[in-house]
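Chain X:
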Amino acid sequence: EFALCGGRSARIKGLIEVGSIYGFITDEKYNPISSAQVIIAGDSEFISYTNEAGYFIIDNLIPGTYNIIVTKSGYEAQKLSAKVTVDEINEFNVVMKQAEKEKGRISGMVVDYISKEPLVVDVTITDIGLTTVSDLSGHFAFNNLKPKTYLFKIQALDYITSHTDATVLPDETAEIMIHLIKGGTVITLEGIEFELGKAKIKPGSSSILDKVAAILTNHPEVDVEIQGHTDSIATDEFNLKLSQARAEAVRDYLIDIHMIEPVRLIPIGYGETKPIADNATEAGRTKNRRVDFIILGE
């Protein structure tokens, strides 16, 4: 190795002077990138990898022009050319950009919660302000979406506005199913049993109430009126108090067991004032002893 003017040095390979290329590889915030591959190609090919400080060096290069290719998983490959000399500083620092992830899509369907019929609705991705309309079969799609979680708002006339989210993965399609509920929809809970003349729910009824809880959990936008109804046996006053107590018992179950927000549940007892069958028969009285859920509009 011989000293050159300016404090630089060059090595002799045979009778030919050789030089070096060195530098730092960083991201756009100038953080060092380790384990990046640096390929220098000319008449021959040389490979090096950056250390934890993002530094690389390749020695024994014959003076001349080389192509440099820097690669690292998750980053865009960088290509440049460099001229190697023995009497100049051959330093090449490279800033790498993160590679854009492959885009994905979202495909969905919107149906009526009760009838399961498809709905034509407005579907908006609220965080990017992108809106589409579902077709006559209830289907909609958003294409070329960057991978991330998106928030959706689904709106249709006479239906409670629904909000949901979906996560897009690179080069994949996220499938979502949306059930919209009409304001004023009546959901009758058949099979809920109370102890005779009391408001205590029998254990066998919990599975039915759990289904209602699932609706409320999946539709946080929905508030309900819990209606308690009785047959015409006993006095009007007794039946009114009993129906109110039973509606409140259902409300308490949903709050205590399923953590439904109390403000979403309005218990009202109607006693025997809203029969749906003839109280003159046992079958009719059985139908009249019921709990209804009324979906409240926005």
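Chain Y:
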Amino acid sequence: MSMRPLAPYAALAMGCLWLNCPGTTRADEWGAALADRLEIEVSTLEVAGRPAFLLLPPAEKRSTPQPWIMYAPALPDYPDEHEAWMHQQFVAAGVAVAGVDAGEAYGSPRGRAAMSALYDELVTKRGFAPKACLLGRSRGGLWVAAWAAENADKVAGIAGIYPVFDLRSYPGLEKAAPAYELTVEELQANLAAHNPIDKAAALAAARIPVRIIHGDIDEIVPLGANSAELAARYQAAGGADLVQVEFAAGQGHNFWSGFFQSQQLVDFAIERAKQAATPPPK
């Protein structure tokens, strides 16, 4: 089996991990793995007791306020190596990327609280722009749509890679209910109050632009119940000009490189993040 050489920053961090260095935290271990997967320098922090990661642009490309993208789902295996090119484009363009591991939260209040804690840390203490572009991959769509609905004034745009918006389609109410600290019956009875797809009209009313790429034969996160439904609800709410869904012909829920190397999606996220960090003309 061949092994790809580690970037210097990853080798240093992984060396500490392998040697079980004193003071190594869960966030440190996650950061080391991310640095290896993404081939980018990774900073780690803890917010509200949860590990978080931060990808910063090179020093000469940083700015104040710092444009940024909030990513979900930030989990031990995500972002993964398939996203390396995408995140490299973000930091090369001067845009930071951050995410917090709230576990399998599925857009629940627990997950939204962790995202708010990350937002507060970066904006109030680290000079980040008061609006972020949100990026949700797969079930991360639940995270970003739910958080955006509660924090529309903090959102510059939403980008998605085969994102989930309807809890019924994935993970299903039986799996989602514990994350919401509800029984299945309670979640079903109050679904409109919790299901991110039911927030689409509010997102459109807040004029939050959306750009998505989604496979047209996705069986795990069906296009019709998620991205296409979000677009339809945007249109019904008068936001047809705000939503763009790129249909990936013949693609399912997979690692096709086109999902993660979509120049249009990357350009959208960069443009929205940078615009949010640009002071209005006087």
